TrEMBL record, chain A:
<feature type="transmembrane region" description="Helical">
    <location>
        <begin position="21"/>
        <end position="42"/>
    </location>
</feature>
<feature type="transmembrane region" description="Helical">
    <location>
        <begin position="97"/>
        <end position="120"/>
    </location>
</feature>
<feature type="transmembrane region" description="Helical">
    <location>
        <begin position="62"/>
        <end position="85"/>
    </location>
</feature>
<dbReference type="GO" id="GO:0015419">
    <property type="term" value="F:ABC-type sulfate transporter activity"/>
</dbReference>
<protein>
    <recommendedName>
        <fullName>Sulfate transport system permease protein CysW</fullName>
    </recommendedName>
</protein>
<keyword id="KW-0764">Sulfate transport</keyword>
<dbReference type="InterPro" id="IPR000515">
    <property type="entry name" value="MetI-like"/>
</dbReference>
<comment type="subunit">
    <text>The complex is composed of two ATP-binding proteins (CysA), two transmembrane proteins (CysT and CysW) and a solute-binding protein (CysP).</text>
</comment>
<feature type="transmembrane region" description="Helical">
    <location>
        <begin position="242"/>
        <end position="264"/>
    </location>
</feature>
Automatic annotation (TrEMBL), chain B:
<dbReference type="GO" id="GO:0015419">
    <property type="term" value="F:ABC-type sulfate transporter activity"/>
</dbReference>
<dbReference type="InterPro" id="IPR005667">
    <property type="entry name" value="Sulph_transpt2"/>
</dbReference>
<dbReference type="InterPro" id="IPR000515">
    <property type="entry name" value="MetI-like"/>
</dbReference>
<feature type="transmembrane region" description="Helical">
    <location>
        <begin position="22"/>
        <end position="50"/>
    </location>
</feature>
<keyword id="KW-1133">Transmembrane helix</keyword>
<keyword id="KW-0812">Transmembrane</keyword>
<comment type="function">
    <text>Part of the ABC transporter complex CysAWTP (TC 3.A.1.6.1) involved in sulfate/thiosulfate import. Probably responsible for the translocation of the substrate across the membrane.</text>
</comment>
<keyword id="KW-0764">Sulfate transport</keyword>
<feature type="domain" description="ABC transmembrane type-1">
    <location>
        <begin position="73"/>
        <end position="276"/>
    </location>
</feature>
């Protein structure tokens, strides 16, 4: 009974041709595009690349992009963790609806996300008009960019945490309560070590998207070079100016962040595939 | 990621008036969540409602049935459908080889699958436009075959397909991993052909996840903007997608028209989102035998 444990697609020729086709497609659709970004960025030599990256407008765009990410990520970290805690540790009416609602940014086109904010907070919006009386202008300046970026990236941390926290259950935390630990202590000593890696990946994903958001930011930014131009907008601007090498130099910085994100993800998955060793009861008592 | 991976998970605490919540932080965490969801996700929608309600019904209908806009719906729908169907095949193939086979570089391929989510859409856009341009790495070969991708609707399909590759892979992968080998081995050892076993044994448990992945990919493609505008050529009536129409109306400061078109797209995407979530809930319950 040599073939008792044979499964579908185990014949060598099936296996080889399926792997071959998939790898060929993956090569053309995923690997070569990354190669082409760096090849184009460096096509005029390293010194041109260095000049492009240290151009004053590029540097300003990098600074603004990092600033936006630095504001967005902590906000969504707090929100994502709070949301994951409330929907996985408690049952309440509307829980399912809440889980669906946080997916809205995944379904809504980034352009429409930007439009929603422009309509509300722009000069003619009911909130924007009122704010204008106090000389507060949010759209076409950095606060607007931060606001739409928060919108676009808010599901990532929660989406990473919810399945994991659901799977882990709350027995350990309940033991902490029985032993008299405070809520904050339970979170820090029991929950946080268990969700650490998923949380890190959620943050990295949030950061990658915050740094790279284009459509929504493009609607609410005034596209003023050296003022409200984020790095992805700067890429577009250079590309439209037929400065392809310059555009790819900036793009390669964003691609490097993307590659780093993939490395962190692979690392996090490797960590999570190992059994979680924790004896939180001892730490709490 | 799919909940089917953890069928044993019990609801944490049933809601009822009598049972007490054991864990602390209910008020605080739910408070933060509701405040955030209301302020960030729901409040901005009021602006759209107000803007469109300022239009008469006739103006609204006139704006959303403008021939150029209608053409953009058609282009967006068929390109998104083509891209998500392509990803149905490609995603299933990738998920299959990643779950079933061992080969060198498997971990790298697995990591690369998520590239389209990590790479900014504008970067993807200029990269694909460069690859498929007349003198690009792909474009010059395709030109010899008489295929033009850049600045045609085909370019839109390519951009949409690229940005939504991970959806099908990541929804099908966990289901493939969970498939019990017993039925399959039995069918194979009874002499059924591989194709027949795949159709009769494997596919029935696989297709709900496959449909979910394709639907997610479709939804994402409908709204895609950054990756498309660089490669599409954006020719009116030919290669303009609806999100670009919204963008163009905005640049013309025609906020009312932008809002009217956006409300159509927003409604369609929200309906799709809720439908996918309902569908997922239903088939997951069935798989868990509840």
């Amino acid at each position: 009974m040599a073939n008792a444990h044979r499964r579908v697609g185990d014949q060598p020729w099936v296996r080889r041709s399926l792997i071959g086709t998939a790898l060929l497609l993956a090569m053309f659709m995923l690997v070569i595009p990354v190669v082409v970004i760096f090849a184009q960025a460096l096509s005029a030599g390293w010194s041109t690349f260095a000049d492009n990256v240290t151009d004053q407008y590029t540097l300003h765009a990098i600074g603004l992009t990092l600033f936006v990410a630095a504001l967005t990520v902590p906000l969504n970290l707090v929100f994502g963790t709070a949301l994951a805690w409330s929907v996985t540790r408690f049952h309440f009416p509307g829980r399912k609806l809440l889980i669906t609602l946080i997916d809205i940014p995944f379904a809504v086109s980034p352009v429409i996300a930007g439009l929603l904010y422009l309509l509300l907070y722009g000069r003619n919006g009911w909130l924007g008009g009122w704010l204008a009386n106090y000389d507060v202008q949010l759209m076409f300046s950095w606060p607007g960019i931060v606001m739409v970026t928060v919108f676009v990236t808010c599901p990532f941390v929660a989406r990473e945490l919810i399945p994991l926290m659901q799977q882990q259950g709350s027995e350990e935390e309940e033991a902490g309560v029985v032993l008299g630990a405070s809520g904050w202590r339970i979170f820090r000593k029991i929950t946080l070590p268990n969700i650490k890696w998923a949380l890190i990946y959620g943050v990295v994903l949030t950061n990658a998207r915050a740094v790279g958001e284009f459509g929504a930011v493009s609607v609410v930014s005034g596209n003023v070079r050296g003022e409200t131009n984020t790095l992805p907008l700067h890429v577009e601007l250079l590309y439209q100016d037929y400065n392809v090498v310059g555009a790819f130099a900036s793009a390669s910085l964003l691609a490097a962040i993307a590659m780093l994100t993939l490395v962190v993800k692979a690392f996090v998955e490797w960590r999570q595939s190992r059994p979680i060793v924790s004896t939180p009861e001892k730490e709490v008592s | 990621m799919s909940a089917s991976a953890n069928p044993s998970v019990a609801p944490v605490r049933r809601f009822s008036g009598r049972s007490k919540r054991v864990l602390p932080g209910f008020g605080l965490s739910l408070g933060i969540s509701l405040f955030f969801v209301s302020l960030v996700l729901l409040l901005p929608i009021t602006g759209l409602v107000i803007e469109t309600s300022g239009m008469t019904w006739d103006q609204f209908v006139f704006t959303i049935t403008d021939p150029r806009v209608v053409e953009s719906y058609k282009v967006t729908l068929w390109t998104a459908l083509a891209a998500s169907l392509f990803n149905g095949f490609f995603g299933l193939l990738l998920a299959w080889i990643l779950v079933r086979y061992e080969f060198p570089g498997k971990r790298i391929v697995d990591a690369f699958v998520d590239l389209p989510f990590a790479l900014p859409t504008a970067v993807a856009g200029i990269t694909l436009a460069t690859l498929f341009a007349q003198n690009g790495w792909y474009g010059q070969w395709l030109a010899k075959l008489g295929i033009e991708v850049a600045f045609t609707p085909l370019g839109i399909v390519v951009a949409m397909a690229f940005t939504s590759i991970p959806f099908v892979v990541r929804t099908v992968q966990p289901v493939l991993e969970e498939l019990s080998p017993a039925d399959e081995e039995a069918a194979v050892s009874l002499g059924a052909s591989d194709g027949r076993v795949f159709r009769k044994v494997i596919f029935p448990s696989l297709w709900p996840a496959l449909v979910t992945g394709i639907a997610l990919s479709f939804t994402r493609s409908l709204g895609e903007f950054g990756a498309i505008i660089f490669i599409a050529g954006n020719t009116p009536y030919v290669s303009e997608v609806t999100s670009l129409m919204v963008f163009i109306r905005l640049q013309e400061y025609d906020y009312a028209a932008a809002s009217a078109i956006a409300s159509v797209v927003l409604l369609a995407s929200l309906v799709l989102l809720f439908a996918i979530n309902l569908w997922q809930g239903r088939y997951l319950r069935r798989l868990e035998g509840r």
